[in-house]
Automatic annotation (TrEMBL):
Domain CCDC81 HU: 9-90, 102-148
A GO CC term attached to the entry: microtubule organizing center
Name this protein carries in UniProt: CCD81 protein
A Pfam family the protein falls into: HU-CCDC81_euk_1
Organism: Serilophus lunatus
Superkingdom, taxonomy of origin: Eukaryota
InterPro entries: CCD81, CCDC81_HU_dom_2, HU-CCDC81
Residue ranges the record marks as coiled coil: none
Amino acid sequence: AKMQKYLLHNSVGPEELPILKELSTSEIWKIWSGASCYIHRQLLQKRAVEIGVGTFALVTVHASMEEGKVLPVERPVFVLSKPLRSFYSLECDEIKIPVEIPVVQLDFEDIAAETHFRQEIVEQCIQETLLCFAGALRDNKEVEFSFK
């Protein structure tokens, strides 16, 4: 049900983004940097992280080497959630996250402790940013989302 809020029929208005309006760009970056570190730690522990619009995971891909050798390499991927893909009619590479990989949610308490923001602020900042992301998908805008 959490993901439903990102299936938008209308554009996102500023009234839906109260926290993003209050925070500075560097504060927003700090919170997302904390989220990024949290995701990184989970991936290192062989867990996938679901963030509402999709899931970060490490998957094994086969890299071709010289002399026809194939080397299995673990690669971080972001898999957009299926309902989101179909709702916005997006074409994505079909990446399967292996079923044996446990999936966790973002731990807002953990990220708050690391970034020294209140937990509610962290949670709302992340959710409002994802709402902006969904709004950009809805309005067919190009989106670039960088993670360290």
